[in-house]
Amino acid sequence: MRPDAQAPGAPSTGAQATSAQQDGALEVAVLVSVGRHPVTGRARRADQDARGVELALSLAGARISLLHAGALDEESESALRGYLGMGFSALTLVEQLPGADVVPALADRLSAARPQLVIAGERAEQGEGSGMLPYLLAERLGWPLVGGLAAVEKVENGVATLLQALPRGQRRRLQVRLPAIVTVDAAAAAARQSAFGPAQRGEIEAESAAVEWDEAQPEWNVTPARKRPKRLKIVKAASARDRFKAAAAKAEGGSGQVLTDVTPEQGAEAIFKLLKDEGVLR
Amino acid sequence: MSEIVRRDPRREWIARNRLHPDHERVLAELGQSAGHGMAATEWMGPNGVIRKNPHAVGFIGPNGIKRIDRSGVQQAAAAGRGAGAGRKAAADERRQVTIEAPAFLVAVVPDMPGGRLSSHDRDLLGLARQLADADGERPGAVVAVLFGPGEGSGEPKERAGFGEAGIDRLIVLDGDDVDGYAPEARLAALTAVDGEFAPRHWLFPDSKLGGADLGRRLSARLGERPAAGIWQVERDAACALGWRCTGRGAAGTSDIQRALPRVVLALAECAEPVSETRHAVQPLALSQPLPPLLGRIEDLGQVAVDPAGVALSEAEFILSAGNGVKDWEGFHQAAKILGATEGASRVAVDDGFMPRHRQVGATGTWVTARVYVAVGISGAIQHLQGIQSCDKVVAINLDPGCDMIKRADLAVIGDSASILAALVEMVQRQREEKRDAA
Question: Whole-model pTM?
Answer without folding.
Answer: 0.74
